[in-house]
Amino acid sequence: MKIRICLVLVLVLLWVPAYGQKRKAAKQPQPSPEEIARQEKVERMQANTERIMFIDSVLVNKQQFLRALHMSPEAGHIKPVKSIMRNEPDTTDCFAYLNELGNKCYFSRQLTDTTSMLYGSYYEQHQWTPPTLLEGINDDQRFSFVNYPFMMADGQTLYFAAIGDEGLGGYDIYMTTYDEEDDRFLHPVNIGMPFNSESNDYLLAIDEFNNLGWFVTDRRQPQDTVCVYVFVPTTERMTYNSDEFTPEQIADYAQIGSIQNTWDDPMILQEALQRLRKRATNSIQTVRSNKPFVINDALTYRAASDFRHPEGARRYQQWLDLLARRDELATNLDKSRDYYAIATSQERQQLSHEIRSDEQTKEELNQQIRDMEKSIRNAENTFLTNNK
Question: Could you tell me the CA-to-CA distances from 276 to 41, 57, 235, 269 in Å, in that order?
């Protein structure tokens, strides 16, 4: 009898853990059909990742990403909607594309808290025409938010970002083409990886005149921070051959794990970097040459040639140089502060020292700018008074 009782106890002790493991295994949730479909979509896009060379990247505050786009004027301009369309609601997250001539605008208009659409307008007789909805972009209502438009130089190919069921998550970038015969855009196409991800991919813009492209995303970034990538546009879409690259390598390219891994042609890389440096320098020079200078309440100069004082033009140029140095320093400070949030403890120690030093230098530059402005203004007003 005792032996039988012992056997029963042993069997119970063996059965209880096994039963618990079965129940625990049974409780594990199975992926939903939607999750399975989403994962299959990711795998399909990943297998068809486009081969793109990324030559540079910079982290910036999301509200300041426009400063990192050094496109030529011929490529047009990307601006907040309110800075172009004065009568539009003051929505900070809606953006517009303005063409080179400044007479055609594509922009996002927020309709409700959960929807925004793309509109177009022409500048005629010193005013913007009533905005018209871009037909074909969202006729089937598959997108909720539609934003960040960019029109190519051909006036036909439009890129934009949208949130919808066809995307991978957050904003995805789409491309469409204008059909002149039907006066509408064709069905938009998701441009796939590496430009799209499960994060927010906001903007794709291409400067055909310098053969450079810019791409803005918040993947792997802290809140309110985006990464602006510069890439070399391609004339045809090429993908990674599965016979040459492992699935892990293709996955890294799809997520832009390292821009250095895309540098497969040193000559193309160096030529593109030279174009980028030249374009960035030209952008700074353009800013330098267009700064207004207030002489008095009734007079504002807009160029060095406006000055009457013999030393005015030279000192005005020195003032512009100081402004450029301060703005460049401010940009570097923003980069340092953005990187500080994700830096290691050792890097933070070095960054703290650099940030404090740059902040002091910036304040010194601000004081020099104020002193020079006062000196230039006083000298010019005195000369004008004495030479009426």
Answer: 35, 12, 19, 10
**Which residue reads 């030249």 in tokens?**
278
Measured distance CA(379)–CA(308) in Å, rounded:
10
Q: In this structure, how many other beta carbons lie within 10 angstroms of the beta carbon of residue 340? A: 15
For residue 65, what is the DSSP state?
Answer: G
- Catalogue the E-assigned strands of the chain: 53-61, 77-80, 95-98, 104-112, 115-124, 127-128, 132-133, 143-151, 157-164, 172-179, 184-185, 189-190, 201-207, 212-217, 225-232, 293-296, 299-301
- Per the CB < 8 A criterion, the answer to whether 320 and 288 are in contact is yes
Predicted confidence (pLDDT) per residue in 361-374, tens digit: 889 999 999 999 99
| Residue 322 · residue 368 · CB < 8 Å | yes
Answer yes or no: pTM beyond 0.90. Answer: no
Q: Does the CA dihedral 61-104-88-141 come out positive or negative?
A: negative
- C-alpha torsion sign, points 232, 238, 243, 247: positive
Q: Express as a percent the part of the chain with pLDDT over 70.
A: 89
* 3-state DSSP assignment of residue 296: strand
What are φ and ψ of residue 212, in 5° steps? -135, 150
Q: Tell me if residue 243 falls in helix, strand or coil.
A: coil
- Residue ranges of domains in the chain: 38-282, 289-386
Length of the chain: 388
